[in-house]
Write a structure and sequence with these properties.
- By secondary structure, the chain is α+β, with helices and mostly antiparallel strands.
- The protein folds into two domains: about 10-60 and about 190-270, no CATH class; about 70-180, no CATH class.
- The protein has five helices and 22 strands.
- A seven-stranded antiparallel sheet has the order 14-20-17-18-19-16-15, covered by helices on one side. Strands 4-5-11-10-8 form a five-stranded mixed sheet, with helices on one face.
- Strand 18 and strand 19 (about 240-245) form a beta hairpin.
- The two termini are about 35 Å apart.
Length: about 350
Amino acid sequence: MAEPTSALSMQDLVLLVAEYYGVASYDSDGMPYIPADDKFNLRESVRIVNEAIRMFAARPPRRNGKWRWMHRTQTVLFDADGTGSDNISSDAARYMLSTDFGGQIAGPIQYIAESGHGTPIRWCDISEIVAGRENDVSTGYPQRAAIRPYTPTGPSLGARRWEIIFDPAPASAESVQFPYIVGFDKLRMEGGTATGGSATTLTDTGRTEPDDYFNGWTVTVVSGTGVGSYATVTDFVKSTGVITVADWLDIEGAAGGTDPAASSIYILEPASNLHPAGFQFDEVVRSACMAKCEMEADDSELGTKAIQYFEKISLPNAYAIDANAAPRTLGKMSSGPGRWIRTRENVTFTE
């Protein structure tokens, strides 16, 4: 299910924090915008948003000590040639895991039900597989699997990632799955003031990131010429500070957005830059951001209203929403000796 258009974005949260914390920038009409023209204020706003999300995630319901929304399923599709999109270093045994996998496995790993394979796969320590591969890299149906932090050999991915490695290396295209706990790293946002712009570029000679660092990110003009225009970055060159796009889209997503120019203020963020809990938890994340502002403010100059609201209203409401995600029996679906029981997760037949 896609997020609704009303879901809180990272832009919404950063602007909320910047305004409440008193570091937002304002245009000539007095309208606030994300303080991308002030590096310190932007980074402070982003930091507070991330710390607020961590604060929320660290306060699970007491009944079981965990959030249901943090439970996910990872699927790995084997590619025997090592050329799959998730393969690492053309190695058929190594695969990159999801960006929200933080190293916490929540159950066994097994072939998907449709595969028909009965070969068990067991989790083991990475050292066991590494030691075996030093002598021989065999192929076949994997019987062991291990995870380890991924160490990039080129430019940094900008976020901590994990990989999974199998032994033997898969010899055919099969899929395996395992449950895991979401690990929140951080939401990211960069910004600045353009030194130039055109129909397919935005230039900022002050950028210091490596070539291609922002490829695939979204660049959005938040103030000045071209405000509201946005596009996907197709190329970034460090030496010139040129951010290349195919075309600028307008605020409605249609082609023909206004081109940026020198002094346009912009932000950059990854294509998927939403908090991990899902839009049904937007209110508690919003209140956590405001509460964190009050916690950070000197001498409690903002008061404690947002803290009280977070603790006494929005967090308990989030517990109720999370509890509603549990399977619920909806009743008998037949009049025969057997019966179908429908749950929110699946349909199960019982004798």
